[in-house]
Amino acid sequence: MRAIAAILLLIAATPSFGAKLSEKQMSEAINSEMVTIPMPSELFAAINKAGKPDWAAFYRDPVPTAYATRLQTAFNLGALVTDGFVAVEAQDGQQVKNIGKDIIALARALGVGEDVLARGKSIGDFADAGVWSALLEDLEATVNEVRRAMVAQRDEALASMIAAGAWLRAWQIGARAAELDGESRCAELLRQASLAAFLRSDLQRLPEKSRNTPVVAEVDAALADIGTQMTALTGTASDSEHIPAIGSTAAKIIADMSAKRQP
């Protein structure tokens, strides 16, 4: 129930930095200036309960670990963390270790502290031991710590791009899972227009210099399109049009952001 409740909490309420958080939510918050949002792992846990998909079917080819801009690096770090959650659901230790190394490489490129980089070893240790719950918590802690480090460095744009990358990759996977499931249970979990709107508002609060870069503009446009498709979801047969649209928009931005490109 924790997974479903965390998602519904955001769907049901308009995100607000002034909202009163429970003690548990406060402990999970990235810091006092940033609202808690659910992790993609929460969505995947709910999907697993609804349909138990073949998680390995959602793997993708390895992506580069060096990019022209820090914004693109941050986006791809977020997407890779989501890949890590997929590998945990598949209980694939080697895949988790491979992804973990790439996550640390991207985190290092963003200049995070050694305390974050040290998590690479614990991720590998948990993967070797097959301690999946601890591994999931470690991946969640890693992305939180990287985002916290970015905010501490006054790089809020990078923290926002990490969250956007994580969720756009999650919606790509979630849409495909809903298509394969063919039932309304997984499709209902994609009704997250409030989350898409929050991620957009997070980008739109950035300084003009960051907000007007091509990378941020493309991510914002993808979130706007996906939010529109999510709003149109009704839990009926008409969703067969909107779910593939969510998946294709997410897949396009993920592929574009993971490709080498000019700054």
Q: Using the alpha-carbon principal axes, give the shape.
A: globular
Report how far apart the termini are.
43 Å
Number of helices: 14
Give the ordered list of helices and strands: HHHHHHHHHHHHHH
The percentage of residues in β strands lies in under 5%
Binned, the helix content reads over 70%
- Rg, alpha carbons: 17 Å
Overall pLDDT confidence? 82
Q: In terms of per-residue confidence, which ranges show pLDDT below 50 for 5 or more consecutive residues?
A: 1-34
Largest sheet: none
Structural domain count: 1
User: What class do helices, strands and sheet pairing give?
Assistant: mainly alpha
How many strand elements? Answer: 0
Q: Can you describe this structure?
A:
- The chain is built from 14 helices and no strands.
- The protein is mainly alpha-helical and 263 residues long.
- It has one domain.
- 44% of the residues are buried.
- The N terminus is likely disordered.
Write out key terms for the chains shown:
single chain, 263 residues, mainly alpha, 14 helices
